[in-house]
Amino acid sequence: xxxxxxxxxxxxxxxxxxxxxAVISGTQVQQVLQGREKQVVExxxxxxxxxxxxxxxxxxxxxxxxxxxxxxxxxxxxASIGGQVEVDGIKWVSSFPDNVSSGIPRASAVLILNDRVxxxxxxxxxxSIISASRTAASAAAAADWxxxxxxxxxxxxxxxxxxxxxxxxxxxxxxxxxxDEIGVFDLSGESAEGFKGYLERSGTGARxxxxxxxxxxxxxxxxxVFATVAGQPHVHDTTWFAHNPLVLHVSLRDLAxxxxxxxxxxxxxxxHCLKAGTSAHLLEQMTGNRDFxxxxxxxxxxxxxxxxxxxxxxxxxxGLGVLDLAVGKYVYDELARSGQLRVLEDFFSELRRYG
Length: 355
Known about the structure:
Protein name: Putative ornithine cyclodeaminase
GO biological process, one term: siderophore biosynthetic process
GO molecular function: oxidoreductase activity, acting on the CH-NH2 group of donors, NAD or NADP as acceptor
Shape: globular
CATH topology of the largest domain: Rossmann fold
Strand content: 15-25%
Mean pLDDT: 93
CATH class of the largest domain: Alpha Beta
Structural class: alpha/beta
Oligomer: single chain
Helix content: 25-40%
Order of helices and strands: HEHHEEEEEEHEHEHEHEEHEHHEHEHE
Number of domains: 2
CATH superfamily of the largest domain: NAD(P)-binding Rossmann-like Domain
Largest sheet: 8 strands, mixed
Number of helices: 12
Low-confidence stretches: 1-10
Pfam families: OCD_Mu_crystall
């Protein structure tokens, strides 16, 4: 059914109410999402389709950087998504790599959901779990769609072993992936061993190997997951990819432009990926064009770009704010349905225009 436009006068006459404001903790987010990985992957795929159809607003992310703390940043991702989700909002996510040395996670985040009718925020949510979940769901979706026609890889390698790597493994396992071999590499040997321990506790039947260097990991993996905090390319040798693996380039800045030039390149959003010093952005600057971009994941899902099997496939997801909103709204709706929302009745104190 076609939606009819409402005149400004009629819209002004319609009564509006301010939605109740809820605070949603990380514990609640985990309780909703745990065990529902397949549903989250389906939601992320549908959100990509809605975004590709133009029923979204996803402006460039804003990076807050600090001259006195050059490795740290806080990023604002405003967005609006239509479809069946219909919500506006913003993610405010920080990345402070030095946290790791103190034993606390690198990233933290909050997600704000705004009502589309009044503009009032109606939820403030712990956002790092939502961010990790949508990132892992995006990676799992890409691994599925990009391996169709070439066979699912049986050997996976994780380059970087933090929270995102753990979530990606969880989502792959929950969406019926299984492996004969799992390779692990991290600049921190302690982190690599810790990730190996997690994998063994997860009940994997795969042989888990901690590699001494990146070349060994990449050459022995048919699916390579980059989940690092690298700020610039550090993998340069194209021959390491001669066996044409599927690469989930989640951290975006690990691969030298030459590697992308020799690969099939699938992005989540072209305009977003070709900025902020990503490997794809560096390649655009090097070549002066975007001819190396083969399409988006939505193009693959729609059958417009068939995956190739004669060269490496690199999926580079910038991470869209609309994905956070879709997953966040899913969490909110589930908590509302079960009566578990924690509402702050007096959050807004001025609700009468003239007092």
